[in-house]
Write a structure and sequence with these properties.
Layout (H helix, E strand, L loop, with lengths): L7 E4 L3 H13 L6 E4 L2 H9 L15 E4 L8 H10 L8 E5 L4 H9 L4 E4 L4 H16 L6
Length: about 140
């Protein structure tokens, strides 16, 4: 399978949140390439690979990961911790994108190495603005340098 690197990897288990995100992407007339995985296990398999796949993992890393916290199988915290302990993904930009507004979640995300923590907005217009801001902040320049 030949996969190219997306601009944004959205790690999200909620179908309604995925649909809203993609609608905001269309509404903004965004050209960013989005890839979606539905839980932490899928995210780690894509980003770190597994023993059954020989693809060069570094060639398919996104420019930004938007990571939900509350997911089945592995939480966003579990995924974040694993990505930060692997040399290939240690510097990968990861933004926690969660409905949680708990200060303990924000502190833990930053402790584990998240680049930012953004609460999912309640209003669609705010989601459009946040997506545009993600693209401006993380995709408009080479943030790796």
């Amino acid at each position: 399978m030949n996969m190219s690197a997306p601009d944004i990897l959205l790690v999200e288990d909620s179908q309604s949140d995925i649909e809203l995100f993609m609608f905001a992407h269309q509404r903004n007339k965004s050209t960013a390439v989005i890839r979606i995985v539905r839980d932490g296990v899928e995210a780690l398999d894509l980003l770190l690979g597994n023993e059954n796949r020989t693809e060069d993992v570094l060639a398919i890393l996104p420019r930004l990961v938007l990571l939900d916290l509350n997911m089945p199988r592995l939480t966003g915290f579990d995924v974040l911790e694993r990505l930060r302990t692997d040399e290939r993904t240690r510097r990968l930009p990861i933004v926690i994108f969660s409905s949680s507004d708990q200060s303990a979640d924000k502190l833990e995300a930053h402790r584990l190495g998240a680049n930012d923590y953004v609460r999912k907005p309640a209003q669609f217009k705010d989601l459009c603005a946040i997506l545009a801001q993600f693209e401006h902040d993380w995709l408009s320049v080479d943030v790796a340098s």
